[in-house]
Design a protein that fits this description.
The protein has nine helices and no strands. The protein is mainly α. The chain folds into two domains: 41 residues, Arc Repressor Mutant, subunit A (Orthogonal Bundle); 122 residues, Tetracycline Repressor, domain 2 (Orthogonal Bundle).
Length: 183
């Protein structure tokens, strides 16, 4: 086994995605994922708490980018502009992973347990955005509403960005979604 090779986390994620697509989520074990990646099952569990988490292991970095964008918006920026800054930062973070994310979306769509995990992650992300907005002095209800709307914008943009034939950068796609919001 090539345990010494770098980037075990990424290798595990790629192996899991491949196996989930080939065999199905339910039929794939953590041991099989580790073996496919040329690693041990113990290494798998050093990186991920369970086999569901292997596909969602980059969510913390995405949330960090999103929240940093909101927090880093100019102090006088409206809630909408702060959210836009966060969404654009998240989009830039995701851009290099488009091929993986397209495959990810296909696998998640086929497995209810993974869709459930995705929704839970999105809910947590909405709460983190709301917290960042509250830190900017935004009221609780407005902050929570903006957090939820942020997830809707990202989800709609994500679906459009991954559509076959879409060539625009994710940041451009989400900017288009934001421009279409009801006024």
């Amino acid at each position: 086994m090539a345990r010494w090779e770098p980037d075990a986390r990424r290798r595990l994620q790629e192996a899991a995605l491949s196996l989930f697509a080939q065999r199905g989520y339910e039929q794939t074990t953590a041991r099989q994922i580790a073996e496919q990646a040329g690693l041990t099952e113990r290494t798998f569990f050093r990186h991920f708490s369970d086999k569901r988490e292997v596909l969602f292991g980059n969510e913390a970095a995405l949330t960090d980018a999103l929240v940093a964008g909101v927090v880093g918006a100019p102090a006088r920026a409206s809630v909408a502009k702060a959210v836009e800054a966060g969404v654009r930062a998240a989009a830039r973070h995701m851009e290099p992973r488009k091929a993986f994310l397209r495959r990810f979306a296909d696998v998640v769509a086929q497995h209810p347990e993974l869709r459930e995990r995705e929704l839970a992650k999105q809910q947590a992300m909405a709460g983190d955005v709301a917290g960042a907005l509250a830190g900017r002095g935004v009221g609780d209800v407005e902050a929570r509403l903006a957090g939820e709307l942020t997830i809707v914008v990202l989800r709609l943009g994500f679906e459009q960005w991954l559509a076959r034939g879409e060539q625009r950068a994710f940041e451009d796609v989400v900017a288009d979604v934001l421009a279409r919001r009801p006024r």
